[in-house]
Amino acid sequence: MAPKFDKDYVLKTMQERDIHFIRFWFTDVLGFLKSFAVTDTEVEGAFAEGMGFDGSSIDGFTRIEESDMVAHPDPSTFQILPWRPGEQGVARMFTDVLNPDGTPFEGDPRHALKRMLSKAADMGYTMYVGPELEFFYFEDSESTEILDRGGYFDLTPLDVASDLRRETVLTLEKMGIPVEYSHHEVAPSQHEIDLRYTDALSMADAVMTYRLVVKEIAYANGVYATFMPKPIHGENGSGMHTHQSLFSKDGNAFFDAKDPEGFNLSPIGKSYIAGLLKYAPEFCAVTNQFVNSYKRLVPGFEAPVYVTWARRNRSAMVRVPMYKPGKEVATRVEFRSPDPACNPYLAFACMLGAGLKGVEEGLKLPAESSNNIFKMTDEELKKAGIKTLPKDLGEAIGLFEQSALMKEVLGDHIHKFFVENKKAEWSEYVSQVSEWELDRYLSVL
Questions:
Q1: CATH superfamily placement of domain 114-435
Q2: Is 148 one of the catalytic residues?
Q3: pLDDT confidence of residue 212
Q4: Pick the catalytic residue: 167, 192, 205, 216?
Q5: Is residue 192 among the annotated active site residues?
Q6: Is 132 noted as a catalytic residue in this protein?
Q7: Whether pTM exceeds 0.90
Q8: Residues 176-199: pLDDT tens digits?
């Protein structure tokens, strides 16, 4: 876990390291990183009172007549930006967005996650998260011209992005973000860097930092990195498999060596998984929030579309990695459907909200899926009672809009904006005439 700094440490470090600018970071509802810079002389006052800004132009924030917002910096997130100049350098802090009266702003995604983490704490739990984010390197942002034709875990001259990954990992570690793995993924020019697990709020901040660092390093080396879920037809898309667990004062709340079913899962762990399974279709619009997300969620490309769980079976949506003796702390759930273009604050909040709801409702874990679900027929799926995730954004937003749990987890403000924004995106998409339609129909109709 990254060290937690206080304001005195920040002020002292700025003076010692010649930091002249601090970037205040926050996200809009869709998870796009926003920022404004303050000079070193303003930071002490910002810790006391925050810094005012106009929120009316930020997606999902507020109306023009209610535009005044306050960004209050979180000193524990202070990090120097390694890619900026050493002299009169630049650092960043994530901020909590407040109303002018100092109350938390309901449209702030970071606040939505904090509320769910507070609920978990009241139940005696802390959420830990370890995501695996995949992405593509392309020649530029105008095309999908790949850099290599490497495959999964390849270490060959084909993997020309090895140095890019190395530089990215070193930069992340300079910013206090530990990395576990980095490797080439299945598709050409596709890569993955896995962050070491930590508490959910720190991890959401880390994911936002990770996405920017990947893009900054790529840009500095004359290439383009994208977290678009499915940029290349016929190839695997990019996912964000999210490992998660709950810890109590007694340790990992998911582990039970005396599990009568032999899964080494506690009743809490089983109900948490059952909650993910029950509510995943309702929050799919958050974990897979773009039209393109559903081009990845199709059978045949390793992306899970069936609402099932398993231990060894990687075609299931939820996987429980096998327990290793002496590694009780590592007992966890891997939720495999999210993609790396989601808003991590909202995605983690939804996963936690669904899992805790399963615990509250005492949901029973359904039977483990042992078959390769991708090879099952529709009739076999129906007979087995296996549901699927929404097939497109339109279906996903319909389920999300009607979800009482999502209104509770995210709050009315975020829920309402998200529905309106995604309905507009879907409406615009379905009215477009695509190249596929012209190629297929123009010459014959």
A1: Glutamine synthetase/guanido kinase, catalytic domain (3.30.590.10)
A2: no
A3: 96
A4: 192
A5: yes
A6: yes
A7: yes
A8: 999 988 878 778 888 999 999 999
